[in-house]
Amino acid sequence: MNWITLTTNEQVKTISESEGFSIIYKHSPRCMTSLMAYRQLKGEVLAESDNDTPLYIVDVIANRSESQQIAHTFSVEHESPQLLVVKNGQSVYDASHEDVSLRRALEHIH
To answer: Which of 18, 19, 100, 110 has the most CB atoms around it within 10 Å of its CB?
Structure first.
């Protein structure tokens, strides 16, 4: 798995039109909970090096419009940190704050 930086609403649209699974992590660099979740996720991503599910990261401060578009497009309440699993334009799983876990997210894919 490799991190893909999400910086445009066009990327959000592409994810919503994709038939396969995608994972989106909404991150706030100003929030200690988000920083801890990101640190945990980085370790989990390393352990999933053979997984080819697209993994997007969006900075909710720098990319506020895209963050809001994610919430609207996938019908989830905006939170940060937040992890979404998306398939066929629908959020099939989302978790926030201390519940953010790549392992749990992947259970909805496998």
So the answer is: 100
